[in-house]
Amino acid sequence: MPVDVNSAAFRLWQILNGTSFHGCIRNLYINNELQDFTKTQMKPGVVPGCEPCRKLYCLHGICQPNATPGPTCHCEAGWGGLHCDQPADGPCHGHKCVHGQCMPLDALSYSCQCQDGYSGALCNQAGTPAEPCRGLQCLHGHCQASATKGAHCVCDPGFSGELCEQGQGPPS
């Protein structure tokens, strides 16, 4: 088989379909001539013959014939097992939430519930906490948040200190 025809046809397939071919081709004739793939320079992922994946059925995935230990299944999202026939541990298996907890939405998708101080779809963007006074316990006063000082205590009359913990004596 002429290498030019094979590579040109392959490039045309990718341009028209935006994907590559997954499967088995046997008894391919071009211009009434049986093509012999064993006499061409094989590209990665191209294996002569159709045998490697014949005995391996992938229910929710595709077979990769040229894996090191032999043919293996590459499963679609949400599926696992040797034959892609087992539901995965749920959508949170291998989640990408950086600073948050994975919350399943359905069998295949999830969202991230971010920890305080983080935002974004994957909780990977640091920011100001939603409740800046949450961790500040003012003993004799109340917490106030400002852009310049951040969270700080405003003490009741007669008290001072970082947490309004120091009582002042009676006025003289």
TrEMBL record:
Domain Laminin G: 1-50
Keyword Glycoprotein: yes
Record's keyword terms, sorted: Disulfide bond, EGF-like domain, Glycoprotein, Repeat
Matches recorded under InterPro entries: ConA-like_dom_sf, EGF, Laminin_G, NOTCH_homolog
Signal peptide positions on this chain: none
Record domain EGF-like: where: 51-85, 88-124, 129-165
Keyword Disulfide bond: yes
Disulfide bonds: C53-C63, C75-C84, C92-C102, C114-C123, C133-C143, C155-C164
PROSITE patterns tied to this protein: EGF_1, EGF_2, EGF_3, LAM_G_DOMAIN
The protein's name: Uncharacterized protein
Originating organism: Saguinus oedipus (Cotton-top tamarin)
